[in-house]
Amino acid sequence: QSCDLNSSVMTDRTMESVDSMYSSMRSPLPGCSIRDPDLDAKIKEATALASSAEKLQALPYNKLVALHAEMEQLIQVYNESLVQELALKDELEYEKELKNTFISLLLSIQNKRRQFANDRKRKGSKADPAVLPQFITASVPYQDNTGPPDNASLQALIKILRAVNEDNPAVPTILTDYILTVVCPSALSSGFAQ
């Protein structure tokens, strides 16, 4: 097989993109450098070869094929890194959405409590503790010894807050499940062992 580079379309823009691709080669992972010395050597060689159209045109076909294979390998490394970074981005966006939902529900409950207290002061009446709404009586236990809650704990807290906000009669059951599964799961497992 022969390769006629003169008849191929090689524009200055194409050369600029090849040059910039190799001159800006960094590790796909922040804070890391490509540690493979062979890969470093390949990048340096490709950078030198791709620095001008004349150098590329002067290359024999087998060198161009090798250069193409090296570029494909680098593209694969960067594609894998991109997929990992996008998965991390999606996970962080989901966590942000959970936290925003949690904060919104918490603020809604606080506003309802404030409004309830203001209404009681204006009316001057005392409410029967048996008929108080959930947002006044419910108390969610939380242990702050492990740092911020993980996504599963946050989802459980959101479920509780949503039920409290809606004055759902299932709040005691949801709270019990939360306490047994999240706050003290060891008590649940030791209870079955006896």
Q: Strand percentage, roughly? A: under 5%
Task: Supply Rg.
Answer: 31 Å
C-alpha end-to-end distance: 78 Å
Structural class: mainly alpha
- Uncertain segments are 1-34
- What's the total number of strands? 0
Number of helical regions: 8
Provide the residue-averaged pLDDT. Answer: 76
The H/E string reads HHHHHHHH
Characterize the main sheet.
Answer: none
Give an account of the 3D structure.
Keywords: Coiled coil, Phosphoprotein. This protein has 8 helices and no strands. Residues 1-34 have low confidence and may be disordered. With 194 residues, the chain is an all-alpha fold.
Which secondary structure elements does this structure contain, and how are they paired or packed?
Layout: H1 12-23, H2 37-49, H3 53-58, H4 61-123, H5 134-137, H6 151-165, H7 171-183, H8 185-193
Helix pairs in contact: 1-2, 4-6, 6-7, 7-8
Offer a quick outline of the entry.
The protein has 194 residues and is mainly alpha-helical. It has eight helices and no strands. Keywords: Coiled coil, Phosphoprotein.
Question: Main attributes?
Answer:
194 residues, mainly alpha, 8 helices, 0% strand
